[in-house]
Amino acid sequence: MTTAKELQKNLTWEFSHIAKKNTAAKEAAFAYCEGYKEFLNTAKTEREFTAKAVEKLAAAGYVPFEEGKAYKPGDKVYFVNRGKSMAMSTFGTAPLEAGVRLNAAHIDSPRLDLKPNPVYENHEMAYFKTHYYGGIRKYQWVTVPLAMHGVIIKKNGELVKVCVGENAGDPVFCVTDLLPHLGAKQNERKLSEGIKGEELNIVIGSLPFVDESEEEGVKDAVKLNALALLNEMYGITEHDFMRAEIEFVPATKAQDVGLDRSLIGAYGQDDKVCAYTALTAEIDTKAPYYTTVTVLADKEEIGSYGNTGLNSDFVLHYLEDLAATQGANIRKLLRNTTALSSDVNGAYDPSFASVYEERNSCFVNKGPVLTKYTGARGKSGSNDASAETMAKVISIMDEADVFWQIGELGAVDEGGGGTVALYVASMDMDVVDLGVPILCMHSPFELSSKLDVYYTYKAFAAFLESDK
């Protein structure tokens, strides 16, 4: 007779803490995450991530993709889209009409962007005007050390790379906030309006430009001094900001968190954690059955719009070019492709338990999370992965002994969010979301588990190498 304990063991399921099931995983995970932290520190923007990825790809033997060239199994190529997104592949032994293994992550993150005409002076203080990018909680971005990253195109066409606040000895920047002694009226605002968008002004200087040959001085001398310093550093003028992409991001470095050093705290882990694990899994794939396509996209945080986001056709065009190398039918390639939309999910936070549904939440240290659907208000704006797609991906991970879990993005009607999955699905592919559980998502200092990061890499590697 079957006992209750036997039935419970055979019929019920519970996702386990990785360290309780595999005590040896910690060492490998900690070692892998040292490279991840280093990458985070030097690739805080989509342009920087793309450039660093190209360096790693070139070192691993990848070459720029050439249209019309014949490729053999094991060949490795990459394509860069306007310096801010990219795709890369390892050719497999199966014909392209059998489909590819596509893994898509994004490399943009919430931040403060400069307005086109940003420099101004107010009461002998110089500031930058900003427009926030992506879904931020604005109050989290005040009194935080910020670094200035980006590019400026000068009138003569020269591209100038800008980076201030990351190196030892660099100045940093800051958005100010009220002192509590004078914050009574501000305290009455709703949390979402505690800091308003037009209050996210960045302090850039307080000293005037002094010309001893002029008795009266000049108007807006503090602004002029800031512009003079920028001109000295980069040879730019105020007019050049209209031909610029300047982003302000936290100046902090990736750090271990907790006495046990089990967590990583850093800016931009949504979604650079999935992008880095996808990149390294792609590089480590040597002889796949299916041709791999790893995509690192831009603009996800604002809907994936624009010609560097996945709501454009740049990935479709890359796949068409791949198909042309074998004279393959692109429709068959797309229809037979299995894809991952690799983005983070919100990890269960016991301090704010009411916005989660515990049975269907993801947790730190239980592995990458399969998210069948995202969206909001009845799954609106979501790809809802089929049972067949879920079964295939779960089978791949189980056969590779990868720890994984299931999770939604919060309780029903508490909010929601989206990923690039729906844009991948619109190309007639089977796709499901898979990524790292994150605490403090979209904040200047997000938390991830080293075990989760490592097993996300393992999941991606298994997906790319499987012949299912």
UniProtKB/TrEMBL annotation:
GO terms for biological process: proteolysis. Pfam families: Peptidase_M18 (PF02127). Its cofactor is Zn(2+). One of its GO terms (cellular component) is cytoplasm. It comes from the Bacteria. Its EC number is 3.4.11.-. InterPro entries: Peptidase_M18 (IPR001948), Peptidase_M18_dom2 (IPR023358). Keywords: Aminopeptidase, Hydrolase, Metal-binding, Metalloprotease, Protease, Zinc. NCBIfam families: PRK02256.1. This is M18 family aminopeptidase. It comes from Phascolarctobacterium succinatutens YIT 12067.
